[in-house]
Amino acid sequence: MKVIIPFALSLYALVASSASAQESINQADIERIVRTLAADSMEGRASFTPGNTNAAAFIQQEFAMIGLNPLDGYQNLRQDIPMYSIKPSRMGVSVNGKPIEPEHILIRADREQVTWTEKDSVEIFYIFEGDNFSAKIGEILHQGVDALVMVDGSHRDLFQEYREYFVKGSVYLEPGKEKTLIAILGAAVEPHRYSIHVMNSVETKTLTNVIGMLSGRRRETVIFSAHYDHIGILTPVKGDSIANGADDDASGVSAVISLAKHFKMLGQPERTLVFVAFAAEEMGGFGSQYFSQRLISSSVVAMFNIEMIGTPSKFGPSTYWMTGFDLSSLGRIVQKNLEGTPYKLYPDPYPKEHLFNRSDNAKLARFGVPAHSFSTTQIDIDKLYHTVGDEAGTLDFVNLTNIVRAIATGAKSIVSGIETPSRIDTSKLK
């Protein structure tokens, strides 16, 4: 009897959770949230902009009205992230006794000063005529060494595009941790002698994750997340220059807020629930990286990262899919919870897009957490992705609401502590 009664109570909780999802997750509220975040006044929510700051403040207000608590160790619902913007300010470079003009120098460095000569431990690389410039640069960066790259002049146009990007500066969580790449355009000749001295300017900036928590009976944690940043202002198209990011990812943020309200209404959960709106996903996942590095990952039993759920999936209405389906048992547990409902979950139908590694779930997955992204986007044919056309008016709010209800229903046995997904084998991650 001591075994049967808790199970019966848990079963009742599952049924109640499924039914209440229909009542507490409503379309009007979801549409209000999306339209607020995707409004022109937010100016595309690019990192380090007033629109991004305003979006974070709005989400914080929503979490506060629901009654979420700060994450343990924090005084409020914000997790401020110190960032470092680093860009070249002065440079002096000569190769084989010949001074190099600044417009022929590309620098990627995360430190205030770089001084090299041929006596230093620097790897030399070459990009010859006919080589794939972008692929070669990627391969060199992947090697994780200090690199001097001699580039044939035939790559002038693409070289200048890369140079202009890096001249604007790059942002880092911790300066001085990465290797330096310096590329020189001209002829891919062997640099027998070289003298390189670069000074960078370093500016401190701040980003913010917005985090709320519902304390459970257990310290085990389930995370529901989405990123609130987008890509800001683009080249105008028919007079419109604002990339509003309604689907990417105001739709996901609306889900996180709605799920927080739903689970709050159900009372104290068995497992602790954490709701996160991440900063800087579009810049490389800095928000989720900072968050994951400060988390006791062993206590996290699952992460539901919600990414672009504003349009119906290729499988039809009320269906969605999960990245990295075979990496843990999370997807199979969700599928079982959805049996007998109008909702269905499928494995990621776009494996060639490598979507598992392209969103915030990947940062926690590196610690073995069953962290996956849930989406409906038809990414292979989505013509509005990262354009000024991604506006609230293009979304299917009926389907979006059903997907949020599906996520709540699919997570119920994990939230209630009945089931625990298997951990991710990190050796299988690229």
Question: What can you tell me about this protein's structure?
Answer:
There is one protein chain. By secondary structure, the chain is an alpha/beta fold. The protein has two domains: 4-69 and 215-428, Zn peptidases (Aminopeptidase, 3-Layer(aba) Sandwich); 84-204, no CATH class. The protein contains eleven helices and 17 strands. The chain has helices at residues 4-24, 27-37, 50-66, 133-143, 156-167, 246-265, 286-293, 330-338, 361-365, 397-410, 412-415, and strands spanning 78-95, 98-99, 105-108, 113-117, 123-127, 147-152, 170-172, 181-186, 194-214, 218-227, 233-237, 240-242, 271-278, 300-306, 319-322, 344-347, 371-375. Strands 1, 2, 4, 7, 9, 10, 13, 14, 15, 16 and 17 form an eleven-stranded mixed sheet that branches. It has a four-stranded mixed sheet with strand order 3-8-6-5, covered by helices on one side. Helix 6 (246-265) packs across helix 10 (397-410) and helix 8 crosses helix 10 (397-410). The longest helix has 21 residues, at 4-24. It is elongated.
What is this entry, summarized?
The protein has about 425 residues and is an alpha/beta fold. It has eleven helices and 17 strands. The protein folds into two domains: about 5-70 and about 215-430, Aminopeptidase; about 85-205, no CATH class.
CA-based shape: elongated
Question: For the report, how would you describe the main beta sheet?
Answer: 11 strands, mixed
Counting DSSP E segments of at least 2 residues, the number of strands comes to: 17
SSE ordering: HHHEEEEEHEHEEEEEEHEHEEHEHEHH
CATH architecture type of the largest domain: 3-Layer(aba) Sandwich
Give the assembly state of these chains.
single chain
CATH topology category name of the largest domain: Aminopeptidase
How many domain regions?
A: 2
Q: Report the β-strand fraction as a percent range.
A: 25-35%
Low-confidence stretches: 1-14
Class of secondary structure makeup: alpha/beta
Proportion in helices: 25-40%
CATH H-level superfamily title of the largest domain: Zn peptidases
Mean pLDDT: 93
Give the radius of gyration: 24 Å
SS element count, helices: 11
Q: At the first level of CATH, what is the class of the largest domain?
A: Alpha Beta
Distance between the termini: 48 Å
